[in-house]
Predict the 3D structure of the following.
Amino acid sequence: MNARRIVITGAGRGLGRAMTEKFAALGHTVFGCSRQPRQVESLRAAFAAPHRFDAVDVTDDAAVARWAKSVLAAGGPPDLLLNNAAVVNRNAVLWEVPPDEFARVIDVNINGVFHVLRHFVPAMVAVQRGVIVNFSSGWGRSTSPEVAPYCATKYAVEGLTLALAQELPAGMCAAPLNPGIINTEMLQSCFGEDAAAYPKPDKWAEKAVPFLLGLGPKDNGKSLTAPQ
Ligand SMILES: NC(=O)c1ccc[n+]([C@@H]2O[C@H](COP(=O)([O-])OP(=O)(O)OC[C@H]3O[C@@H](n4cnc5c(N)ncnc54)[C@H](OP(=O)(O)O)[C@@H]3O)[C@@H](O)[C@H]2O)c1
Protein backbone atom coordinates (compact mmCIF):
# COMPACT_ATOMS: atom_id res chain seq x y z
CA MET A 1 0.00 0.00 0.00
CA ASN A 2 1.24 3.50 -0.83
CA ALA A 3 1.05 5.80 2.19
CA ARG A 4 -0.95 8.85 1.11
CA ARG A 5 -0.49 12.41 2.28
CA ILE A 6 -3.85 13.68 3.50
CA VAL A 7 -4.78 17.24 4.45
CA ILE A 8 -7.86 17.59 6.69
CA THR A 9 -9.38 20.83 7.98
CA GLY A 10 -11.25 20.68 11.27
CA ALA A 11 -9.35 17.60 12.42
CA GLY A 12 -9.90 18.20 16.15
CA ARG A 13 -13.35 16.71 16.60
CA GLY A 14 -16.36 15.25 14.81
CA LEU A 15 -15.81 13.69 11.39
CA GLY A 16 -12.37 15.31 11.04
CA ARG A 17 -11.04 13.57 14.14
CA ALA A 18 -12.60 10.23 13.19
CA MET A 19 -11.08 10.41 9.69
CA THR A 20 -7.70 11.31 11.17
CA GLU A 21 -7.80 8.25 13.42
CA LYS A 22 -8.79 5.90 10.60
CA PHE A 23 -6.33 7.28 8.02
CA ALA A 24 -3.51 7.03 10.57
CA ALA A 25 -4.53 3.49 11.52
CA LEU A 26 -4.31 2.52 7.84
CA GLY A 27 -0.76 3.89 7.59
CA HIS A 28 -1.44 7.20 5.84
CA THR A 29 0.01 10.54 6.91
CA VAL A 30 -2.37 13.26 8.10
CA PHE A 31 -1.71 17.00 8.01
CA GLY A 32 -4.58 18.45 10.01
CA CYS A 33 -5.68 21.77 11.37
CA SER A 34 -7.99 22.90 14.14
CA ARG A 35 -8.85 26.35 15.40
CA GLN A 36 -8.32 25.38 19.00
CA PRO A 37 -4.76 25.02 20.39
CA ARG A 38 -6.10 22.56 23.01
CA GLN A 39 -7.28 20.24 20.26
CA VAL A 40 -4.02 20.63 18.35
CA GLU A 41 -2.18 19.49 21.49
CA SER A 42 -4.51 16.50 21.83
CA LEU A 43 -3.97 15.55 18.17
CA ARG A 44 -0.18 15.89 18.50
CA ALA A 45 -0.23 13.68 21.60
CA ALA A 46 -2.31 11.01 19.86
CA PHE A 47 -0.61 11.03 16.44
CA ALA A 48 3.16 11.49 16.38
CA ALA A 49 5.25 12.55 13.39
CA PRO A 50 5.12 12.17 10.44
CA HIS A 51 1.53 13.27 11.18
CA ARG A 52 1.39 16.98 11.76
CA PHE A 53 -1.22 19.31 13.29
CA ASP A 54 -1.38 23.09 13.33
CA ALA A 55 -3.68 25.70 14.83
CA VAL A 56 -5.33 27.37 11.85
CA ASP A 57 -8.61 29.22 11.46
CA VAL A 58 -9.66 28.64 7.86
CA THR A 59 -11.34 32.05 7.71
CA ASP A 60 -7.88 33.67 8.03
CA ASP A 61 -6.43 33.60 4.52
CA ALA A 62 -2.93 34.61 5.68
CA ALA A 63 -2.89 31.85 8.32
CA VAL A 64 -4.03 29.27 5.74
CA ALA A 65 -1.27 30.52 3.39
CA ARG A 66 1.39 29.98 6.09
CA TRP A 67 0.01 26.54 6.95
CA ALA A 68 -0.12 25.41 3.29
CA LYS A 69 3.39 26.68 2.64
CA SER A 70 4.82 24.71 5.56
CA VAL A 71 2.84 21.53 4.75
CA LEU A 72 3.88 21.68 1.08
CA ALA A 73 7.50 22.30 2.07
CA ALA A 74 7.40 19.27 4.38
CA GLY A 75 6.81 16.83 1.53
CA GLY A 76 4.98 18.16 -1.47
CA PRO A 77 1.36 18.34 -2.56
CA PRO A 78 -1.28 16.22 -0.81
CA ASP A 79 -2.78 13.16 -2.44
CA LEU A 80 -6.10 13.94 -0.76
CA LEU A 81 -7.31 17.39 0.33
CA LEU A 82 -10.39 17.27 2.58
CA ASN A 83 -12.21 20.53 3.20
CA ASN A 84 -14.13 19.26 6.22
CA ALA A 85 -14.29 22.25 8.61
CA ALA A 86 -17.68 23.94 8.83
CA VAL A 87 -20.20 25.45 11.21
CA VAL A 88 -24.00 25.48 11.34
CA ASN A 89 -26.25 28.32 12.50
CA ARG A 90 -28.27 27.84 15.66
CA ASN A 91 -31.72 26.65 14.59
CA ALA A 92 -33.77 29.71 13.65
CA VAL A 93 -36.03 30.93 10.88
CA LEU A 94 -33.97 32.95 8.45
CA TRP A 95 -35.36 36.35 9.40
CA GLU A 96 -34.35 35.80 13.03
CA VAL A 97 -30.71 34.82 12.31
CA PRO A 98 -28.43 37.60 13.62
CA PRO A 99 -26.34 39.14 10.81
CA ASP A 100 -23.06 38.34 12.55
CA GLU A 101 -24.04 34.68 12.80
CA PHE A 102 -25.10 34.59 9.14
CA ALA A 103 -21.74 36.14 8.20
CA ARG A 104 -19.82 33.61 10.32
CA VAL A 105 -21.48 30.62 8.60
CA ILE A 106 -20.69 32.11 5.17
CA ASP A 107 -17.14 32.93 6.25
CA VAL A 108 -16.22 29.47 7.52
CA ASN A 109 -18.18 27.34 5.07
CA ILE A 110 -17.48 29.25 1.83
CA ASN A 111 -14.52 31.60 2.33
CA GLY A 112 -12.70 29.01 4.44
CA VAL A 113 -13.01 26.39 1.69
CA PHE A 114 -11.84 28.93 -0.89
CA HIS A 115 -8.79 29.88 1.22
CA VAL A 116 -7.71 26.26 1.57
CA LEU A 117 -8.20 25.60 -2.14
CA ARG A 118 -6.29 28.66 -3.28
CA HIS A 119 -3.24 27.77 -1.19
CA PHE A 120 -3.09 24.00 -1.78
CA VAL A 121 -4.48 23.43 -5.29
CA PRO A 122 -1.72 25.17 -7.33
CA ALA A 123 0.84 22.64 -6.02
CA MET A 124 -1.51 19.78 -6.90
CA VAL A 125 -2.18 21.19 -10.38
CA ALA A 126 1.58 21.54 -10.92
CA VAL A 127 1.96 17.75 -10.59
CA GLN A 128 -1.47 17.09 -12.19
CA ARG A 129 -2.37 14.71 -9.38
CA GLY A 130 -4.57 14.56 -6.33
CA VAL A 131 -8.16 14.37 -5.10
CA ILE A 132 -10.03 17.31 -3.58
CA VAL A 133 -13.15 16.60 -1.51
CA ASN A 134 -15.22 19.50 -0.25
CA PHE A 135 -17.67 18.49 2.45
CA SER A 136 -21.20 19.29 1.40
CA SER A 137 -24.36 17.94 3.03
CA GLY A 138 -27.79 16.53 2.34
CA TRP A 139 -28.59 20.20 2.97
CA GLY A 140 -26.47 21.07 -0.07
CA ARG A 141 -28.95 19.23 -2.26
CA SER A 142 -32.27 19.70 -0.44
CA THR A 143 -33.45 22.06 2.31
CA SER A 144 -35.09 22.13 5.75
CA PRO A 145 -36.43 25.01 7.83
CA GLU A 146 -34.23 26.75 10.44
CA VAL A 147 -30.91 25.98 8.71
CA ALA A 148 -31.19 28.33 5.73
CA PRO A 149 -27.73 29.94 6.19
CA TYR A 150 -26.10 26.49 6.36
CA CYS A 151 -28.10 25.27 3.32
CA ALA A 152 -26.99 28.35 1.37
CA THR A 153 -23.34 27.57 2.09
CA LYS A 154 -23.58 23.89 1.22
CA TYR A 155 -25.36 24.64 -2.09
CA ALA A 156 -22.44 27.04 -2.68
CA VAL A 157 -19.93 24.27 -1.92
CA GLU A 158 -21.62 22.09 -4.53
CA GLY A 159 -21.47 24.83 -7.19
CA LEU A 160 -17.95 25.93 -6.36
CA THR A 161 -16.64 22.36 -6.42
CA LEU A 162 -18.37 21.33 -9.65
CA ALA A 163 -16.98 24.44 -11.40
CA LEU A 164 -13.52 23.73 -9.97
CA ALA A 165 -13.77 20.20 -11.37
CA GLN A 166 -14.16 21.69 -14.87
CA GLU A 167 -10.97 23.70 -14.39
CA LEU A 168 -8.62 20.93 -13.22
CA PRO A 169 -6.23 19.13 -15.57
CA ALA A 170 -6.91 15.50 -16.48
CA GLY A 171 -5.68 13.15 -13.76
CA MET A 172 -7.16 15.14 -10.88
CA CYS A 173 -10.50 15.05 -9.10
CA ALA A 174 -12.66 17.57 -7.26
CA ALA A 175 -15.95 16.40 -5.80
CA PRO A 176 -18.49 17.61 -3.23
CA LEU A 177 -19.31 14.95 -0.64
CA ASN A 178 -22.47 14.51 1.38
CA PRO A 179 -21.12 12.52 4.35
CA GLY A 180 -24.58 11.30 5.43
CA ILE A 181 -26.06 11.88 8.91
CA ILE A 182 -23.64 11.32 11.81
CA ASN A 183 -23.96 11.99 15.53
CA THR A 184 -21.52 14.90 15.99
CA GLU A 185 -21.82 18.19 17.88
CA MET A 186 -23.03 19.76 14.65
CA LEU A 187 -25.87 17.25 14.32
CA GLN A 188 -26.73 17.65 18.02
CA SER A 189 -27.07 21.40 17.41
CA CYS A 190 -29.61 20.74 14.63
CA PHE A 191 -31.42 17.61 15.83
CA GLY A 192 -31.12 17.86 19.64
CA GLU A 193 -31.59 14.49 21.39
CA ASP A 194 -32.66 12.84 18.12
CA ALA A 195 -29.01 12.96 16.99
CA ALA A 196 -28.36 9.93 19.24
CA ALA A 197 -30.21 7.72 16.74
CA TYR A 198 -27.43 8.23 14.17
CA PRO A 199 -24.00 6.53 13.96
CA LYS A 200 -21.01 7.89 15.83
CA PRO A 201 -18.12 9.36 13.79
CA ASP A 202 -15.75 6.41 14.35
CA LYS A 203 -18.38 3.99 13.02
CA TRP A 204 -18.99 6.27 10.01
CA ALA A 205 -15.25 6.49 9.29
CA GLU A 206 -14.92 2.72 8.97
CA LYS A 207 -16.68 2.90 5.59
CA ALA A 208 -16.13 6.55 4.67
CA VAL A 209 -12.32 6.45 4.84
CA PRO A 210 -11.90 3.49 2.42
CA PHE A 211 -14.45 5.22 0.18
CA LEU A 212 -12.36 8.42 0.20
CA LEU A 213 -9.17 6.46 -0.50
CA GLY A 214 -10.87 4.90 -3.53
CA LEU A 215 -11.67 8.24 -5.20
CA GLY A 216 -9.78 9.28 -8.32
CA PRO A 217 -10.09 11.01 -11.70
CA LYS A 218 -13.16 8.90 -12.53
CA ASP A 219 -15.04 10.79 -9.78
CA ASN A 220 -14.15 14.30 -10.94
CA GLY A 221 -17.21 16.56 -10.98
CA LYS A 222 -19.56 14.05 -9.34
CA SER A 223 -21.74 14.97 -6.36
CA LEU A 224 -20.84 12.08 -4.06
CA THR A 225 -22.48 10.55 -1.00
CA ALA A 226 -20.45 8.59 1.55
CA PRO A 227 -21.54 5.03 2.35
CA GLN A 228 -23.13 4.74 5.79
N1 LIG B 1 -22.53 15.44 11.13
C1 LIG B 1 -23.37 15.35 10.13
O1 LIG B 1 -24.42 14.68 10.19
C2 LIG B 1 -23.09 16.08 8.84
C3 LIG B 1 -24.06 16.01 7.82
C4 LIG B 1 -23.81 16.66 6.63
C5 LIG B 1 -22.64 17.35 6.45
N2 LIG B 1 -21.71 17.42 7.43
C6 LIG B 1 -20.46 18.16 7.17
O2 LIG B 1 -19.36 17.36 7.59
C7 LIG B 1 -18.29 18.22 8.02
C8 LIG B 1 -17.87 17.86 9.44
O3 LIG B 1 -18.99 18.10 10.28
P1 LIG B 1 -19.06 17.56 11.79
O4 LIG B 1 -20.39 16.99 11.96
O5 LIG B 1 -17.85 16.78 12.11
O6 LIG B 1 -19.03 18.96 12.59
P2 LIG B 1 -18.46 19.33 14.03
O7 LIG B 1 -18.49 18.14 14.90
O8 LIG B 1 -19.19 20.55 14.43
O9 LIG B 1 -16.93 19.67 13.72
C9 LIG B 1 -16.65 20.76 12.89
C10 LIG B 1 -15.16 20.88 12.74
O10 LIG B 1 -14.88 22.06 11.95
C11 LIG B 1 -13.90 22.82 12.62
N3 LIG B 1 -14.00 24.24 12.33
C12 LIG B 1 -15.09 25.04 12.44
N4 LIG B 1 -14.77 26.30 12.12
C13 LIG B 1 -13.45 26.30 11.80
C14 LIG B 1 -12.54 27.30 11.38
N5 LIG B 1 -12.94 28.57 11.23
N6 LIG B 1 -11.25 26.96 11.14
C15 LIG B 1 -10.85 25.67 11.31
N7 LIG B 1 -11.67 24.67 11.68
C16 LIG B 1 -12.96 24.99 11.94
C17 LIG B 1 -14.15 22.54 14.08
O11 LIG B 1 -12.99 22.88 14.80
P3 LIG B 1 -13.05 23.65 16.22
O12 LIG B 1 -13.04 22.59 17.23
O13 LIG B 1 -11.80 24.45 16.15
O14 LIG B 1 -14.31 24.47 16.24
C18 LIG B 1 -14.45 21.05 14.07
O15 LIG B 1 -13.26 20.30 14.05
C19 LIG B 1 -18.82 19.65 7.89
O16 LIG B 1 -18.44 20.18 6.63
C20 LIG B 1 -20.33 19.46 7.91
O17 LIG B 1 -21.01 20.52 7.29
C21 LIG B 1 -21.91 16.81 8.65
